[in-house]
Amino acid sequence: MTQTLSPAxxxxxxxxxxxxxxxAPPLAAAAWGWQPVRTGSAxxxxxxxxxxxxxxxxxxxxxxxxxPSVRALADQAGVSRDTVVQAYDRLAAQGLxxxxxxxxxxxxxxxxxxxxxxxxxxxxxxxxxxxTAYLLRGIFREDADGSGHTGSAGCLPASWMDEGLISGAxxxxxxxGVRAERSLLGYxxxxxxxxLRRQIASTLQAQEVPAxxxxxxxxxxxxxxxxxxxxxxxxxxxxxxxxEDPGWFLIFGRLNTMGVNVVGVPRLPGGxxxxxxxxxxxxxxxxxxxxxxxxxxxxxxxxxxxxxHEVLRIAERHDFLxxxxxxxxxxxxNMPLRLAAMDRLQRVLLVGGYSKTLSGxxxxxxxxxRPEFIHQLTDLKLxxxxxxxxxxxxxxxxxxxxxxxRKHVDRLRERVDKAxxxxxxxxxxLGCHAVHEPVAGTFAWVDCGMDSELxxxxxxxxxxxxxxxxxxxxxxxxxxxxxxxxxxxxQPAAWRTLALLLERHRGA
Length: 508
Prior knowledge:
Elements: H1 7-17, H2 44-57, H3 70-77, H4 81-93, E1 97-100, E2 104-107, H5 132-139, H6 163-176, H7 194-206, E3 217-220, H8 223-234, E4 240-245, H9 249-257, E5 261-268, E6 271-272, H10 274-284, E7 288-292, H11 305-318, E8 321-325, H12 339-343, E9 348-353, E10 365-368, H13 371-385, H14 390-401, H15 404-429, E11 443-447, H16 452-460, E12 467-468, E13 481-485, H17 492-507
Parallel strand pairs: 4-5, 4-7, 7-8, 8-9
Antiparallel strand pairs: 1-2, 3-10, 5-6, 9-10, 11-13, 12-13
Helix pairs in contact: 2-4, 3-4, 6-14, 7-14, 8-13, 10-11
């Protein structure tokens, strides 16, 4: 039976059979001493890579030396040529060897790298700003376990999600292979994967949001990406945009970099303070109002019907658009009251996604809006980053379409609800109380009885990441309020640290 060699093997074999010239580099004959260990835990490829890499890094093989050919090494060691080819390819990927067409594989010169600077400590230097950037860096630290530092100021732990949903969907997509509507290897569509848009549209239509998949819906790389596209599309430097106070700190930072005038609207239990909204709209003539309606971040409260009607009336009277951030609505447990449903997507742009319920790494979200808005936003998406990631969209579509997503969300919501209840009771025992107890969501918003920024600074010295109220104010106003992730319910060390700091403060 004739064995077909890969290009790498063919190159190496050509080199082996070629007659050496007087100027040819010396052959790495000393490296032929490798013997496979067939009963070891490491694969033969891994053993061979380790053998050569150790000799190269220890200067047993000098730069410019030619490695044995694939055929020669395979015959001598009694392994398949494919084993040698894979090992050589991995060595090349590590920058230890290079392939020269028609000549073989040669040892590369090893350059000393400067020692990397130590990673910044978790604690905050005296006088340094406890700002949005610091909190985000803490949440997404490289050494995080999926929840940031102890305390989990932002994301739910990866262990709370269902990895099997994603791996199962990926296996199904790979098995489907060429029968898939679009190959995993290609670019996505500018407006997003069509089956996914149809699936999202069906869900929204069942919740009375009249989103047509072809004209009123597009996919984005998460809610943050969708909001970024909207503010870049509809705002210019000097324009005024209204936000909630308190509200999501990341959007405050994004708006400030654009040079727009950011004005906060006080948030009450039933939604924005409509009297303040009316006065601010008359004074500033805003272009947009960005708000949470279902499961507000950070309070966990939702919009009432009366406030929703008044917000729509004020927006129409003063001719500004409403951007409805729907990030946490899945945690509500029943059909949310949405401005997009009441307005029929005339003045409202709805932004949602799956990062908080499926996986932050998938980065799949959507924008539902009027056809002309979707057209403008799709063009801006193309200019800024071409299409969304097709594999992620295919995975999300598969999970939504086979019915497993709803069951997963129900289980996750139940766990979050129990954890939130425990968090609130534990916080009360420490003297921290919610002004209005949240009805849903992944956060507790409580008054800790002291400057929460000072508390967060002290906590950072103990590796505990907290989110102080100052970050949730568009005016950066000092606050005694604190946002706690419900994931902290399962972190005893975090509670001990928080109790110690509060006791120290009250004792002082």
